[in-house]
Amino acid sequence: SIPKLREVFKNHFLIGAAVNPITLKREEELIKFHFNSLTAENEMKFERLQPEEGKFTFQHADELMDFAAANGLKVRGHTLVWHNQTPRWVFEDGRGGQADRDTLFARMKAHIDTVVGRYKGLIYAWDVVNEAISDKGEELLRPSPWLEIGGEEFIARAFQYAHEADPDALLFYNDYNESDPVKREKIYTLVKSLLDRDVPIHGVGLQAHWNIESPSLDDIRAAIERYASLGLKLHITELDMSVFMHDDKRTDLKAPTEQMLEKQAERYRQIFDLFKEYKGHITSVTFWGVADNYTWLDNFPVRGRKNWPLVFDLEGKPKQSFWEIVG
Ligand code: G3I
């Protein structure tokens, strides 16, 4: 018989999946069986919730919340302030120019008040700021309209507004390439500076978009250690394991090779063993998807190239990767 993931890991961390309106319906049974946490893959992003100023569209987000409440799942909110999937009006003055700083922060506050306020007490953790660190060289913060108009203070503001809107919600800084040694130190520097200024931040989200080759286990461990040393909670927020190594440009595969699946299973076992070592630090592990029949990686880095990065196959059946992590 098939063990439930949420039972297997109940003494370690919550086990979650990112869903969209289609997968939430199609994979309903799988979700209810295995998971105790949900994240909206897209439906709680700024452009989805407030496409026009003051016009909020909560239908899909509410449907996810209703499903979670009806089935006893927790919800992680994703995401409030990001350079991506944010409508242009947020940064514009309506006369062809750029919004000024006060206007930008007023819009940020209005958005956060409304969204976090609506789900107060229901969404227990929020990715408040997503991907604000630069991937380039020495540069600390990623260039974006948030930074350009608001200055680096935009990050602290977002956390303060979120904390005011729901003082009980756990507030996270979330990023990718989190295990790369250079980016790891930048994330550490940012989060440490927030803590030093008493900004209300409670955790670091490690997206964990990994592949069967990299990052190395040593780099993953070093990142976990470094962030944990700040005394914050760690959530693995967007886990998947691409079957393609970094330089694999093949686009003709109709199915993953045996070798890919074996390597993937071994890696999944290793990282779950690692996560379990950090009991009390890592309190949630969320997959960025449910089953291999749909993943954002089908369109990244190559549009239309199928990938198989999750632990359930195209039919929602457990893969070798599943059996290794529950083993
Ligand atoms: O809904 C529109 C549709 O109306 C339009 O016709 C179509 C044309 O391209 O686009 C549709 O929107 C797409 C959306 O996903 C919904 O499927 C966007 O193009 C597409 O860019 C968007 O991709 C999402 C991506 O974030 C955007 O940055 C992925 O689904 C989502 O998995 C991904 O998630 C991010 C996390 O939020 C943050 N960390 C990285 C992670 C992976 O990129």
From TrEMBL:
Q: Where is the GH10 domain?
A: 1-327
| EC top class, as a word | hydrolase
Say yes or no: keyword Hydrolase present: yes
In its UniProt record, a GO molecular function of this protein is: endo-1,4-beta-xylanase activity
Alphabetized SMART domains for the sequence: Glyco_10
Tell me where the signal peptide lies.
none
Chemical reaction(s) catalysed: Endohydrolysis of (1->4)-beta-D-xylosidic linkages in xylans
The active-site annotation reads: E238 (nucleophile)
**TM spans (from-to):** none
Its UniProt pathway annotation is: Glycan degradation; xylan degradation
Q: Which GO terms describe its biological process?
A: xylan catabolic process
Which keywords does this Swiss-Prot/TrEMBL entry list? Carbohydrate metabolism, Glycosidase, Hydrolase, Polysaccharide degradation, Xylan degradation
User: Which EC number applies?
Assistant: 3.2.1.8
Tell me where on the tree of life, at the top rank, the source sits: Bacteria
The answer on whether this UniProt entry bears the keyword Membrane reads no
The Swiss-Prot or TrEMBL record describes its family as follows:
Belongs to the glycosyl hydrolase 10 (cellulase F) family.
Q: What is this protein called?
A: Beta-xylanase
**Organism from which the protein derives:** Insulibacter thermoxylanivorax
